[in-house]
Amino acid sequence: MTGPAIVLIGPMGAGKSSIGKKLARVLGTTFTDSDGLVVRDHGPIEQIFAEHGEPRFRELERGAVAEALGRGGVVALGGGAVLHPDTQHELASHRVVLLTVSEQTIATRLSGTRRPLLQGDDPLARWREVAEGRRELYERLADASFDTSTGRIQDIVDAVAAWAQEATS
Predict the structure, then answer these.
(1) What predicted TM-score, i.e. pTM, was given to this entire model?
(2) Which residue, among 57, 65, 62, has the nearest Cα to 5 in the 3D structure?
(3) Which pLDDT belongs to residue 119?
(4) pLDDT at position 106
(5) pLDDT tens digits, residue range 84-103?
(6) What is each CA distance from 128 to 49, 92, 118, 134, 151, in whole angstroms?
(7) Cα separations in angstroms, 166 against 69, 72, 144, 160, 169
(8) Model confidence at 27: pLDDT above 70
(9) Cα–Cα distance measured from residue 142 to residue 138, given in angstroms and rounded to the nearest whole number
(10) What is the longest distance spanned by two Cα atoms in the chain?
(11) 20 to 30 Å CA-CA from 70: which of 6, 48, 78, 111?
């Protein structure tokens, strides 16, 4: 597969990485996770937040996003990567898929999370606040949207793959 990347965006816990890996396999292309690139080059995200704060993480994330988009294939972006204006601009030349997830489903997926933005007394309330704050941006950037709350992961992957193949034909 050549041309623009298929970029998965959405809130934390929507399944961008797990769906992205399987989607890349189905489409016979590469998979890149922007958070994975940050970890590869700079260490654990939790540690970056703790030692340098969110602004430094976003700076490192921006470099990882540029690298990932440059590779093409299937790209999963961290939930907040879309906040950067350069990323928003770059996404215009790619096929962007928004993965959504219900609050009921996310409650089970986030149990025991170490995600820096969800630390505190009520991770679910924090998730809701972050997700709602980004919802409009996600929707504006996306070419298609798929809900990951229910059903088999393979069915979601197949639906995204069908959309991607239709979008290129």
Answers:
(1) 0.89
(2) 65
(3) 59
(4) 80
(5) 999 999 999 999 999 999 88
(6) 20, 27, 10, 10, 22
(7) 21, 18, 12, 10, 5
(8) yes
(9) 6
(10) 48
(11) 48
Give the separation between CA 72 and CA 57, rounded to whole angstroms: 23
DSSP E strands, 27-162: 31-33, 74-76, 95-100, 144-147
Which 3 state secondary structure label does DSSP give 100? strand
Confidence at residue 151, expressed as pLDDT on a 0 to 100 scale: 87
- The number of residues making up the chain comes to 169
Q: Which two tokens stand for residue 26?
A: 């189905």
- Please report how the helices 16-27 and 153-168 are oriented relative to each other, as an axis angle in degrees rounded to 10: 50
- Per the listing, tokens 């934390």 go with 12
Predicted confidence (pLDDT) per residue in 106-138, tens digit: 877 666 556 555 556 677 787 788 888 999 999
Tokens found for residue 59: 């700076």
User: Which residues have a Cβ under 8 Å from the Cβ of 151 and sit 6 or more positions away?
Assistant: none
Q: What distance in Å separates the CA atoms of residue 83 and residue 73, rounded to the nearest whole number?
A: 22
The single-letter code of the amino acid at 37 is L
CA neighbours within 13 Å on the CB side: how many for 35? 20
